[in-house]
Design goal:
nucleotide-binding; elongated; six-stranded antiparallel β-barrel; HerA-like; alpha/beta; single chain; helicase activity; 3 domains; twelve-stranded mixed β-sheet; 18 helices; Rossmann fold; Bipolar DNA helicase; 30% helix
């Protein structure tokens, strides 16, 4: 039975003009005009029988127009000499079809027709609105549903996203501090974790998502200084990212000072020496099948001491002079000192222990397979109970190399997907929390941020082909790389108060829904504008509370100050600061 069975006496108004997806409706009944609200839904007659066009009310105007008598006699001041013109601007968003095949009341995000002039327009409210929202909620098949909350239009209607399109077309979740951004991300992650073969990685920069627990989650953290003297490993949830995983550009960024006049020589010799070190490792391990095809970017372990010794040899090399029995400085004598010093400093820096001071296991040839299995193939199962959602805590990684380390993990994921046969490829989603820290808009050439941006740009552009989805989460969208954002076809926008951030989000909105951007500064906490391929109805949604709230660190200042309780922990904080480890406690 059709849910939109209007009578002629319920008419709101008639179509006055049509422009692509925008319709102007003239309203004669002032009482009905007063009941209308911006961003509510309206229904228009279609030129095709059995179809109705659904639109969002964008603007309501009431204008006084002089009558012909007033124009002919300007001295008249009677109210009757002015006519009122009431217009409603409506943006069309889709079509409700009474019957399509064996299905009834089918909503589609397409506009096969536009309303005719003088076509009737009706307001969508009451029971009809409830029935329509039920259609929206039931539109996707069960296996595609991603439940996130309730529609603001009708609190009784559950809001679902199409899970396939949300990750296939990439997504962006933005919102100012305290708007509910982490809450929304946690809600989505919990939905993902419930799937039997879920596969997702979360880059947790501040350790916010540690409360997300259960069989669907697996937690890892990048090794800190306190882990270097223990026997922790992957099984303990501690990740080492050995230096030999770094590619050529990343190594150059970390080890070579580009301001040095000898930087070109240092880069060339470092590259040549690392290749020789990798070749020696392969030869010693009898990996002859790899010897003919490997490059400096191939993830092959090598001995860093071998590299330093060779660089020291070149840096102090003396060669025969012009005269017999004399010597002169070699070509690179004294030109590699700063490179060698930077290498040695990095190796001894305990903050970078996860790179240079890993266990002997991390130098084994098969260690990369173990890392990949933990990060990518670690779906939850009955034997290991490992989670399909892997949350990686980067909170102990120094901020100056954070972009390099986050992008390294992303590159590993993308490379594995790229080199996997399409028939064996299992899709994976990457959640980039605080993305503005490592996918910045502007960077100097060759910096760690620039290398990170390049990797994430490639994932954003090509990830869909290899089954890699990207979810960008940030409180400052204006500071996130524009190319990456432009590839995200799903937008979940929480409250934004900064004008630059609002401008970026408005550019992501379709032209016909540009008015939605005006709601950004007035959204309630936990309320979002949801637009994109995964959302059938572009609208406001109140996000449901996740089972486990993330540690968003929103402290109630006034209440805490008013408590009659002792405040401690400062001594242990000082101790942790000295040891560069948040794990430190006073015993």
């Amino acid at each position: 039975m059709p849910i939109l069975d209007y009578n002629d006496n319920e008419i709101l108004g008639r179509v006055r003009s049509v422009d692509t997806a925008t319709v102007i409706v003239a309203v004669e009944d002032v009482e009905r005009l007063r009941k209308l609200q911006v961003n509510r839904l309206a229904v228009l007659q279609s030129s095709r029988p059995g179809q109705h066009l659904i639109g969002i009310i964008q603007k309501i105007t009431r204008t006084a127009i002089e009558s012909k008598e007033k124009k002919n006699d300007p001295d008249k001041n009677n109210e009757e000499d002015f006519n009122e013109q009431n217009n409603v601007k409506i943006t069309l968003i889709g079509t409700l079809i009474n019957r399509l095949g064996d299905k009834s009341n089918v909503f589609r995000r397409t506009l096969e027709t536009v309303p005719e002039i003088e076509a009737n327009c009706f307001s969508l409210e009451g029971e009809r609105l409830t029935n329509f929202m039920r259609v929206i909620a039931n539109i996707a098949e069960d296996k595609q549903r991603l439940s996130i909350g309730q529609y603001t239009l009708d609190d009784a209607a559950d809001a679902y996203l199409n899970g396939n399109k949300f990750f296939q077309r990439h997504a962006v979740i933005v919102g100012s501090t305290g708007s509910g951004k982490s809450w929304t991300t946690a809600r989505i992650l919990e939905q993902v974790a419930r799937l039997d073969n879920a596969n997702a990685i979360v880059f947790d920069v501040h350790g916010e998502y540690s409360p997300l627990i259960g069989s669907g989650f697996q937690h890892y953290r990048i090794a800190g200084p306190a882990d270097l003297d223990t026997n922790t490993s992957l099984e303990d949830g501690v990740l080492f990212l050995p230096f030999w995983l770094l590619g050529y550009e990343a190594m150059t960024s970390m080890f070579v000072d580009r301001s040095d006049q000898n930087a070109p020589n240092q880069t060339m010799l470092m590259s040549r020496t690392i290749v020789n070190a990798k070749r020696k490792y392969l030869e010693n391990g009898m990996h002859n099948d790899i010897l003919d095809n490997f490059t400096i970017d191939s993830p092959i372990p090598f001995n860093l001491d071998f590299v330093i010794n060779e660089l020291n040899r070149l840096n102090s090399e003396m060669v025969p002079g012009v005269k017999a029995g004399t010597e002169k400085a070699g070509e690179f004598n004294g030109k590699l000192s700063r490179l060698i010093q930077r290498l040695e400093n990095k190796m001894t820096d305990r903050r970078l222990g996860f790179l240079f001071q890993g266990t002997n296991e991390t130098m084994q040839f098969d260690w990369l397979e173990k890392l990949v299995t933990a990060l990518i193939a670690g779906t939850k199962d009955q034997t290991s109970q490992k989670g399909g959602v892997k949350i990686i805590d980067f909170s102990e990684v120094p901020s100056d190399i954070l972009p390099l380390m986050v992008s390294l993990v992303a590159k590993i994921v993308f490379s594995i997907q790229q080199w996997t046969l399409s028939t064996n490829r299992h899709p994976i989603a990457i959640f980039c929390d605080e993305a503005h820290l490592y996918i910045p808009e502007r960077n100097s050439a060759g910096s760690s941020g620039d290398i990170s941006v390049e990797i994430f740009e490639r994932i954003a552009k090509e990830g869909r082909k290899y089954g890699v989805g990207l979810v960008v989460v940030s409180q400052r969208p204006s500071e996130v790389n524009r190319t990456v954002l432009s590839q995200c076809n799903n937008l979940v926008a929480m409250r934004l108060t900064n004008g630059d951030d609002q401008a970026v989000v408005r550019r992501l909105l379709p032209d016909s829904l540009g008015g939605f951007g005006d709601l950004l500064p007035v959204l309630d906490t936990g309320e979002a504008l949801v637009v994109g391929d995964a959302s059938l109805l572009p609208t406001r949604i109140r996000i449901s509370e996740p089972s486990n709230r993330p540690n968003s660190n929103t402290i109630d200042f006034w209440e805490r100050w008013a408590e009659d309780a002792s405040v401690g922990g400062h001594i242990s904080a000082v101790n942790g600061w000295r040891k560069q480890s948040v794990q430190t406690e006073i015993l």
